[in-house]
Please model this.
Amino acid sequence: MSAVTSSRRAGARAQWTRVAGRILLYAALVAIALVYIYPFLVQVSTSFKTEADAANDPISLIPQTWTIAAYRSLFQNSAYPTWFLNSVIVTVFVTIGRVFFSSLAGYALARLHFRGRGFVFAGIVAVMAVPGVVLLIPKFLVINQLGMYNSYVGMILPLMVDAGSVFIMKGFFESIPVSVEEQARVDGAGAFRIFWSIVLPMARPALITILILSIQGSWNELAHFIVSTSDPNLMTLTKGVASLAAGTLGSGTQYPLKLGAALIMTIPIAVVFFVFQRKIMNSSEGAVKE
Amino acid sequence: MSALARPATAPAPPRRRSSGIRRGEGLAGWLFTLPVIILLGVFLLVPVLMALWVSFSDWNGNGSPLSPSVDFVGLRNYADLTTGNGLAERNFGLSLRNNLWYVLLVVPLQTVLSLLLAVLVSRRLLRGRGFFRTAYYFPSVTSSVAITVLWLFLFSNSGAVNAILGRLGANGPDWFNEPTGLWAVIAGWFGMTQPAAWLNQGGFLEVTPWEWLQGPSIAMFAYVLMAVFTTSGTFMLIFMAAIQNIDPALDEAGMIDGASGWERFRQITLPQLRPALFTVLTLGLIGCWQVFDQIYTGTQGAPGKTTLTPAYLSYQASFGSQQWGDGAAIAFILFVIIVAFTLFQRWVLRDRPVSRRRIRAYQPKAPQGGAAS
Model:
């Protein structure tokens, strides 16, 4: 009798512990989420504050007086529109090039048999091991030597090829069945024809992966543009906003303006993120599973 | 790798170069890979070779480094940085000190945090899983420039972080203008303000023992927090993927055997996360030694050269002071450091044979205890 009640009591206690554990877990998750999201909310609200307001109350999410002064001076007194345009140009061309060249090379390395294939692949893997920062000065030397300094060509061409993307595409092409291509080959289609109209449409998931990586990579790139350009007309957003951070525009701390500049630059990449969100979260899962 | 193995192992297809349906494949293969080969060659291989030459030359930025007026100076640039007893050596020493502490703090913190986040959001019965994942990952997609601008505001003297600290009754430092080392600040709380005299003498790379030991400056520490904030999401995804691949039956078996949550994590989950852990540590190490964007956007080495990093110093020496030989030499030393750290970490995490003590622990104690086999 007493054994039954005590066990029932123990059961109730276990239940209680579980509920408390749940509450604790959610509290921790929400608290961490707040730490991760709050800075961006502060950024949005501060960009609509006056400078005095931003300094007086840096944590409030609602401006005392709403103003778009920061954005107005950003678009009227700085070359922000030019920077934005340059970033778009670079990102578009780099991404087109990367997606096309990486899938082309990835396909060849996965499926076409040619002499020296192992050697080419080993070379690409070796290139992936070179840390990017080590290449700052070297890249400048070559771009300068080739007469590409201060030109879109010098900004775009070196970023167009990415060993990591080739690697991803090769891995993907190896994972899809070869039978469809064999059929096309029997029917007499050439290598490029097979690649373009049969293989590429099947490669959508991998293409989206390198598309995202490329957009994010080239939109956020800074170091390469520092060493390949000095012309203010060729400034990208990263370089321009970095120069704002150093305080070359007007006087005072200019926090609303700087935060607004950083915010607008984040929006396109945030849009890409939310559009492909499910894909980003799942792609790494799928990639490792295989 | 498979390319090398294929001729020996794969039954199909034999390499017929001139006949059959595989005709022209050799040509197509080369044509398909040619753009990548050319661009990687021109913008990667050639530059590295050219920079290697510059690191052994006295080129000062005028004209081409390949012109006959540029002289070979042997290891002089490297000697300047390591045994020159001058400003170049001290700057290099300081940059190594700063970046070393950065690595020592960021890599463990980001690894532990991302693992924790991954474990939390991978629980099977969790409401709002998607929301939490998105929230934790979002900082990872933003550019380092935008995040640095935000960080400069949050950690400014009158910024949000100090405002929150103020509400908690603490007096926050002027983060990005504070050159004092983190350990020195903490030692100061315990009344230790003056380092022992011997700590101010001698030193390595023109940096005194006290300077080496006092840790990252408060300014550098703000960058440490930023790095943890922006990378934990990416690494969380890697851990999440690995956790998804663990067979839940193993965890259930542990539960039946009466193992607690922590024991199950420690003994069942963690060992299976080894490959992911390896990836995260490697990527973290490589990334942490390359801090450049943040420093360029933010403090540019200030205050008191405590946020100077080798990558930024290499840039500054070349583009700023026209010491191209020094700059290139720093880049190559940095390369060697990254390779050395990666190899060291591989060695630490290598697969070790299970020790005899461990084996005994797995041996069934009673005849029916076969679950641990």
Notes: The mean pLDDT of chain B is 85. Chain B touches chain A through 102 residues (CB under 8 Å). The domain at 105-306 of chain B is CATH 1.10.3720.10 (MetI-like fold).
